[in-house]
Write a structure and sequence with these properties.
mainly alpha; 3 helices; CF(0); ATP_synth_b/b'su_bac/chlpt; plastid; proton-transporting ATP synthase activity, rotational mechanism
Amino acid sequence: MKNVTDSFVSLGHWPSAGSFGFNTDIFATNPINLSVVLGVLIFFGKGVLSDLLDNRKQKILNTIRNSEELRRGAVEQLEKAQARLRKVEMEADQFRVNGYSEIEREKLNLINSTYKILEQLENYKNETILFEQERAINQVRQRVFQQALQGALGTLNSCLNNELHLRTISANIAMFGVMKELTD
């Protein structure tokens, strides 16, 4: 350390010889050179360094602001998406509930309409059975009547002779004549 202070002290004691030379003692000249360089750097570099630091600070602040804005935008979008999701879930639940109730309603309507159709078919069946029974009864009546008529004609033809036959026809004609006069 004594060398360093001696080099500063010896600066004041240099002989003013008129010669110029290099001091090759590195340990003695190095602190002087460093202090000169640092002084020049501080004096001239202070503004540049300050500007660089200010620019860097502004870039960092802008990045932080942009990040905050992006975060707020992302939060807003997330909230909107969550609101839409809740809305869609509620609509889906409502569709599901409405769908189930609609299915139940349709099922009941189908069951009711099926019962009505079955009831109508039962009525048609009963009407058809009654119609067929009446037709069968009428056919049986006609056959019985035809057979009775044929039997009566056969009996009349075998029992009646021509004279009795003519008297029966004349009596019937007379009866028709009286009935005609009554209706006129």
